[in-house]
Design brief:
By secondary structure, the chain is mainly beta. The protein has 1 helix and 11 strands.
Length: about 120
């Protein structure tokens, strides 16, 4: 069972930036990882994903152009950087093991195992 722990969330001003981390145990080797988020009263939505090699990435339209997903397998960590944050980005952000990285997979909320989430609040 892959264990995932998210961190890096917090309260930021609109227009600010955050770098979220997803730390995995025992290893990230050969695992594709997706990021998802859920705002209060709303359904969970896919945000981004990265393939096991890091060679393929996908982004939802809501964050495309503002986000970068990356991974460092030596550190067993996947990162999601979001710039130009908007109030609409306020949500709990989760990372999850997925079968492979595709837009269809993150839209389908197809996580195999999940972290506990980290809260992102964008407000002035």
């Amino acid at each position: 069972q892959l264990q995932l722990v998210e961190s890096g969330g917090g309260l930021v001003q609109p227009g600010g930036s955050l770098r979220l981390s997803c730390a995995a145990s025992p290893t990230l080797e050969h695992y594709a990882i997706g990021w998802f988020r859920q705002a209060p009263g709303k359904e969970r939505e896919g945000v981004s994903c990265i393939s096991s090699s890091g060679g393929s990435t996908n982004y939802a339209d809501s964050v495309k152009g503002r986000s970068t997903i990356s991974r460092d397998n030596a550190k067993n960590t996947v990162y999601l950087q979001i710039i130009s944050l908007k109030p609409e980005d306020t949500a709990i952000y989760y990372c999850a093991q997925i079968v492979y990285c595709s837009l269809a997979n993150i839209q389908a909320i197809s996580g195999i195992s999940w972290g506990q989430g980290t809260q992102v609040t964008v407000s002035s």
